[in-house]
Specification:
heterodimer, A: alpha+beta, five-stranded mixed β-sheet, four-stranded antiparallel β-sheet, B: alpha+beta, 27% strand
Chain lengths: 189, 200
């Protein structure tokens, strides 16, 4: 929660486990073999808050850190998951959908293309990125993972096989095939 | 580790949790006609991310029953039961799991346990705490706990987790209790015990 990680190591797997109202923001540059993941907690940063926790500051920070790792903004593909409303709480403060909106706004301000989203509803989710494959997947409890960005193959954690394979950039080129676009559930106006 | 709470304060909160969970264990034992064991509770004042981590594997499937509380203290009581053990709890009660009746039975167990727990707290502190109807949600542990912790404490405040565990003897069933007061209200819980002031 509130963590952010950027990797150009093709054997890495990045994950944000058990997202509820939080948003898992995954960005990949498949050509450069760079991936980043942020676990965003709330929509707006207040004075003194950690940059990585809040949508309005976490998105530009992740984009900048990926640029420094060799990614280019025009090639970046983003996928988001989470933003659920899991309980009906008095006051009706829906943090999940506010997070969802704030991340979308910040992505468009950063000129990063949003390729897929799996947000809203009342279920928790887990997001994983296989850095070498440039593959982003999402999973809800009791169900298999589905691809958000990076093709139809069933997701698999990075193994030693991936370590023996060529560089992330070469691998990413092979993965250019059809992209699975998973539609948004509920959160779009 | 707990910059805002002293050891004495955490001890006091742990003792509160101990007494409250004792009341809840008695209720559960009467309901199931079986012995119920209580472990030594934990009192943790942690940043939200660490508080979620302290509750267990974030991807584990759990049944969560939430009872929101309002009054002198606002917050919530959360019961976590590993999903499979929730099924065996339904079996013990003679109802089919994953049916309307099964879900209703879990909510009712949550309701009785949470209110017993609150009664224990009220007896100790004299504070008024009104429970609201229970909600049941089965999902990944991390998703349930993080959503509630953030709702109660926000992203930066310390979350107070009072965690105790009940084990039903002769059945694979353990229930964790968490009390999450809304941010800034931890001192209200400590005030009746004469421990509101955090030593500098």
């Amino acid at each position: 929660m509130g963590e952010m990680v950027v990797s150009a190591n093709p054997t890495d797997e990045l994950s944000a486990l058990g997202l509820g109202s939080c948003i898992g923001l995954a960005i990949v540059d498949r050509r450069a073999g760079v991936a980043g993941l942020a676990h965003i907690v709330l929509p707006e940063r207040h004075e003194g808050g950690e940059l990585a926790k809040f949508a309005d500051t976490a998105v530009p920070l992740l984009v900048e850190r990926m640029r420094r790792a060799g990614a280019a903004v025009p090639r970046m593909e983003a996928a988001i998951a989470g933003g659920a409303r899991m309980f009906e709480m008095s006051g009706g403060l829906d943090i999940g959908s506010r997070n969802d909106q704030a991340v979308r706004t910040a992505l468009s301000e950063a000129n990063v293309a949003l390729r897929a989203s799996e947000t809203g509803g009342n279920q928790g989710r887990t997001v994983r990125i296989n850095v070498g494959a440039g593959l982003v997947t999402v999973r809800v409890a009791g169900q298999p993972a589905v691809a958000l960005v990076g093709g139809k193959r069933p997701p698999r954690p990075a193994t030693s096989k991936a370590a023996a394979s060529p560089t992330g950039a070469e691998r990413a080129r092979k993965w250019r095939g059809p992209r699975a676009i998973v539609s948004t559930t509920g959160a779009q106006p | 580790m707990n910059p805002s709470l002293s050891d004495i304060q955490l001890d006091a909160l742990r003792e509160l949790a101990n007494i409250a969970s004792g009341t809840a264990a008695t209720a559960l034992s009467q309901m199931l006609a079986r012995g119920v064991e209580i472990n030594v509770p934990r009192a943790l004042a942690l940043p939200p991310a660490d508080a979620v981590e302290a509750c267990g594997d974030p991807e584990a499937d759990v049944a969560g029953v939430v009872v929101a509380i309002q009054g002198d203290i606002d917050g919530l009581v959360l019961l976590l039961i590993p999903a499979r053990q929730a099924d065996s709890l339904c079996d013990l009660l003679g109802v089919e799991p994953h049916t309307e009746v099964g879900d209703s039975a879990l909510r009712e167990i949550g309701n009785i346990l949470a209110t017993s727990y609150l009664n224990g707290l009220v007896a100790m502190t004299g504070l008024v705490m009104e429970p609201s109807p229970p909600q049941l949600h089965t999902d990944m542990l991390g998703a349930i706990v993080s959503t509630l912790v953030i709702g109660a404490a926000g992203a930066d405040e310390l979350a107070l987790v009072l965690d105790s565990e009940l084990d039903v003897s002769g059945a694979p069933c353990s229930i964790s209790f968490l009390l999450l007061p809304t941010a800034g209200q931890i001192s209200d819980l400590l005030a009746p015990l004469g421990l509101a002031e955090s030593p500098a």
